[in-house]
Amino acid sequence: NAVVFVAVTFAGLVRLWVGEPVSVRRPLHFNYTEAHPSTVAALGGAKRRGRPVPAGRTARVSLVLIMPKSDYNRRIGVFQVTAEAIAPNGDTITTSSQPCMLRFRSLPVRLMRTCLMGIPLLMGICTESQKVTMEVLRYKETGRRTEAIRVRLKPRAGTTDLPQLYAAEIFMTSQLPWGKELVYNWKWSFYVWTSLYMYIMLLISIAG
């Protein structure tokens, strides 16, 4: 009973001090009536009060695009993705902009894949789409909490062509500080060895 009590108490204290990494996933719906389609993903909600990522932690935002492998998307090639972290008052906390495109596959490779995957494609088991994942933001959360993430698509210079999308979403995670991340990754080892140590010290104190 003493071992269980010590283990539960220590586990609660460690969990209270370390906390849990934050993970937020939001779907994106771009407004293609704009010249540069944009969308805003709110990070708050009725079930999540306060800041999604606690102050002092590093936030990482990844963008996931599901794109049809169409001739159109291959033809437009590179387009630009701009992402912004927005504060509650509307100010921009941080921003980044980087190019994106479908991963290149030569014509022989595409023909070979179509031949091999012909039946699954016809049966709808797989689709002619490509999932593109890219990290668009990495920053340290400060006193100004992040209220939303804005993502904008821009065509390559000299063109007006924008990519075709099946779906899009952002995935936001937080990184614990170095010390807390070490404890979190090895928490079960810490639980066992520290609980055993505390139990032995308790036995010594009782015996003494």
Structure write-up:
With 208 residues, the protein is an alpha+beta fold. It folds into two domains: 51 residues, no CATH class; 155 residues, Jelly Rolls (Sandwich). It is 33% helix and 32% strand. The chain is built from six helices and eight strands; from the N terminus they run H-E-E-E-H-E-E-H-H-E-E-E-H-H. The strands form two sheets. It has a four-stranded antiparallel β-sheet, with no helix packed on it. A hairpin with a 5-residue loop joins strand 4 and strand 5. Helix 1 runs antiparallel to helix 5 and helix 1 crosses helix 6. The longest helix is centred in the C-terminal third of the chain and has 21 residues. The radius of gyration is 24 Å and the shape is elongated. The two termini are 20 Å apart.
Fraction of residues in H or I helices:
25-40%
CATH-scheme architecture of the largest domain: Sandwich
Order of helices and strands: HEEEHEEHHEEEHH
Total count of strands: 8
Largest sheet: 4 strands, antiparallel
Question: What overall form do the CA principal axes indicate?
Answer: elongated
GO cellular component, one term: endoplasmic reticulum membrane
Pfam families: Seipin
GO biological process, one term: lipid droplet formation
Signal peptide: 1-19
